[in-house]
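Re: the pair you flagged

First of the two:
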Amino acid sequence: GLMKLVLALQSRTAPRNLHMATLNPSIDVTGFDVVFPQSTTSLVGLGAAIGGVSSFGFGGSNSCAVFRRV
């Protein structure tokens, strides 16, 4: 996940979501500036690119990292 995020930010290209056919209707994204790419999407000209990765360890440890490319 981390390498995929770094490569996406570096190339300013968001890869498509492989297994997402439709958004859950219970999730309201009205007023939330988010994109769920159905195909490879360019991030050029959209300002700062921000992404995050989270990890949940077997022993109960959790971590989260947020990256931003200006």
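Second of the two:
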Amino acid sequence: SKDKKIVITTRDRVLRAWQNSTELVRDFENYAKETSDDAAEMFQKYAVDEGRHAAELLKLLHDYQDNGTV
């Protein structure tokens, strides 16, 4: 019916954050390859940092799945 609202759960938000984070890792890695000055080093560091975020979010997603919160 028209009155039904879509419920976005915490797991949904974590999933979207993980997807965004993995995209940023790829972007930063590409930027690092495409530049050759101090920016390349900065982008590589950002890729590593964002990779940590993605790993933490993935662990949380697995926890939700293992606990049946899907």
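The mean pLDDT is 94.

-B.
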